[in-house]
Structure formats: C-alpha cells, structure tokens
Amino acid sequence: SALMEGTLKVLEAVRYSVTGYELEEFMHGVYHSIDQDTFMFYIGSEGQYYNRMMNMRNYFEKERGNKNFVITSDKGLEKDPRNLIFDFKNHPYFASLEYVVPLQVLARKLSSDLGIDCNISSDPGFHKKMGSYTY
Prior knowledge:
Shape: globular
Strand order of the largest sheet: 1-2-3
Strand content: 5-15%
Number of strands: 3
Largest sheet: 3 strands, parallel
Oligomer: single chain
C-alpha cells in the first residue's frame, strides 16, 4: 500500500522512526500519543473514509496543535500551503502508486535537508554483522 511504502521510504531516507496507520486503527488508541510536536501526513484518496479523515485532521489541528499535511487531489484544500495537492487519477488500480510518489519525494528532500546521503547506509557492515541478505 502507499502508506506502508511511503513510511518505509521516509524512515530509510530520514532515519527517524516513522509509523503509518489505517484510519480506524489509529483512532482505536494511537491518538493518545499526539502532541504539538507531532507531524502527521494524511493520504487523502477519494473514497468512503475521506470525510472522516478530514474530520480527524481538523480535530488534531484544533485540539492538539500538531502539524498536519494532506496528500490529496482535492482542489478545495489548495488554500492551505501545507497540503500537497496533485492531479491524481484516483483509480483503484493506480492509487497506491500515485500516492506513494509525494512521500518518496518528501523523503528525499528531507534527507538532503538533514545532510543525509540516503544512498549510503548508516552502517555499511550491518547486514554482514546480522548475517542477513547474502551473508
């Protein structure tokens, strides 16, 4: 899914712990941990959960004061410069491909801003030490 691939790319490139949650799973209890220092990205594809997601985004902005960013094709959200608006097709077969691209670009931009060359491992000998891959 776009969520899992996107969080993996950010984690690899920025080297911060990043976690992605499905909406209902998040609302089951993860919301307790959100404070003003939390950055949240919402993958806002069209569908039955879009309005519920936007309600949650509005709640966190008002109640917790955290940083919220919506990745979407909804042109109605262009007024907020924090949102990432794209001309996605929103076709069920392509949505997972379309929505991961902004997260990949964000990951690369953040790693560059932090001075991290995400093409160089944080520990080039890690897999040898762990006996993973071909070791």
